[in-house]
């Protein structure tokens, strides 16, 4: 998979390193000469250019990219890069970094953003996830379809503990994608049983989140 990353700062380089370790082809783009540190990520391609300029993106051959990541420290730049990547080059997947939580509402399909990642929101969500049992925690927002990646740790008293996944009447527009049980990561099937303490990851429409939380947190009859 070919990935272009706009912004070669600490965030962009860190993402590039992870992707390269997983066997992907990575191009880092930055307009600041001081940001071009080839020795830090030598396996990546580097381009000294303004990612907000069409000529720069032509040089980067953005149309060959499967994913574009707008990872600069400037929300305006990230929005422009996202919009150009989606509308001018038809990039299938655009991920954008949100620096200021007040701007999060802009990072949506209208600006070409498929996934918006807000570091402050993600950090607070991870704190909530670490201390909350029985409460739905929103981890990530997907722009298309108004869907979110949400997590809930199944409480001991949940009526669904011991129930097979296929026997649960899940709300519409929700999908259980992963069960984390101790050190194991399970891809759920209809025959898998839910256990108290399971971390359940769902992709769910925002309008269904409350219904999903109510379903998972309902107490067993005494």
UniProtKB/TrEMBL annotation:
Domain RCK C-terminal per the UniProt entry, residue ranges: 137-218
Keywords for this protein: Ion transport, NAD, Potassium, Potassium transport, Transport
One matching Pfam family: TrkA_C
Highest taxon above the source species: Bacteria
Residue span, RCK N-terminal domain: 1-117
UniProt cross-references to InterPro entries, sorted A to Z: K_uptake_TrkA (IPR006036), NAD(P)-bd_dom_sf (IPR036291), RCK_C (IPR006037), RCK_C_sf (IPR036721), RCK_N (IPR003148), Trk_Ktr_HKT_K-transport (IPR050721)
Keyword hit for Amino-acid biosynthesis: no
Coiled-coil spans in chain: none
Protein name (database record): Trk system potassium uptake protein TrkA
């Amino acid at each position: 998979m070919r990935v272009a990353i706009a912004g070669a700062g600490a965030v962009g380089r860190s993402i590039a390193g992870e992707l390269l370790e997983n066997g992907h082809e990575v191009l880092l783009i930055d307009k600041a000469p001081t940001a071009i540190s080839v020795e830090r990520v030598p396996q990546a391609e580097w381009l000294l250019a303004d990612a907000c300029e069409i000529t720069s993106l032509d040089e980067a051959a953005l149309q060959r990219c499967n994913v574009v990541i707008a990872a600069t420290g400037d929300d305006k730049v990230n929005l422009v890069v996202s919009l150009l990547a989606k509308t001018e080059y038809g990039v299938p997947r655009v991920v954008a970094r949100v620096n200021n939580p007040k701007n999060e509402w802009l990072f949506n399909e209208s600006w070409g953003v498929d996934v918006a990642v807000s570091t402050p929101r993600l950090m607070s969500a991870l704190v909530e996830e670490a201390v909350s049992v029985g409460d739905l925690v929103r981890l990530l927002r997907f722009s298309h379809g108004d869907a979110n990646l949400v997590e809930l740790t199944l409480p001991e008293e949940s009526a669904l503990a011991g129930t097979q996944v296929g026997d649960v009447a899940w709300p519409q527009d929700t999908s259980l994608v992963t069960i984390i049980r101790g050190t194991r990561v399970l891809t759920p099937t209809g025959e898998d049983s839910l256990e108290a303490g399971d971390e359940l990851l769902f992709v769910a429409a925002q309008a269904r989140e409350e219904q999903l939380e109510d379903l998972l947190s309902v107490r067993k009859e005494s």
